[in-house]
Amino acid sequence: MKTYIDQLGRSHTFESAPKRIVSLVPSQTELLYDLGLEEKIVGITKFCVHPYHFKSTKKTVGGTKKVHYEKIRLLEPDIIICNKEENTQEMVAELQKIAPVWVTDIITIEDNIQMIKDFGQLFNCRTESQKWTDKLNFAWSDFKKFIADKPVLKVAYFIWKNPYMVAGSGTFIDELLQLNHFENIYTNKERYPEVDITKIRSEGDPQLVFLSSEPFPFTEEHAFEIGIHTHHGKTIFVDGEMFSWHGSRLVKAFDYFKKIHNSIATV
After folding, report:
1. What is the average pLDDT value for the chain, to the nearest integer?
2. Per-residue confidence at 45, pLDDT binned at 50, 70, 90?
């Protein structure tokens, strides 16, 4: 019997490494795959789009906010993977009636690294876990050198329309914005606040307005609607996975961030 502690400080005891995994967090489904655990993953959400072939090889049990509990029960999982931000407390409480629920809580890059290490221990894939933490630490160190002489630019990061919502403080997105020398004008607001775009100048007047590719499909019309309320803000459509996904995706994100900076520099 071994006892492990998840990122909410909750204890979980297993006789052996869990062999049947239901993952309700898209980014962590990708991580589990990258850790070599494909054969152990039995259930995913409809938003688990990486790797692509999981759509046809794994059982879909619902979304991240609403799942089909009976489908999950019939999969007979040894463990269910959730995330504090992605999934609700009510879901976790109900899922605990089926199997142990491991909840991650990722706000910083250090949290992300700890999650990868935790999975290495929990699923007995320490070698793969170490490979990914090494890759991540190297890419992170390299990016910090790249960004060192870049100027700080004021930004607003939009995630939703009707109402308009942005990323505020206490989010992984805000952590990555800071890393990029992007000063979030809404960092005085917590989590994902609703905002009035007509007040965007008085609330910080961003030099850059980022429109995320997920969870809302922003268009050029939205870019214009927001942009006219800034002084000279440049609107950029960005890959939401790179700014919000935890796990192994972050290794790819650092190269993506470099491309954003290089494109800004040429404008």
Report:
1. 97
2. very high
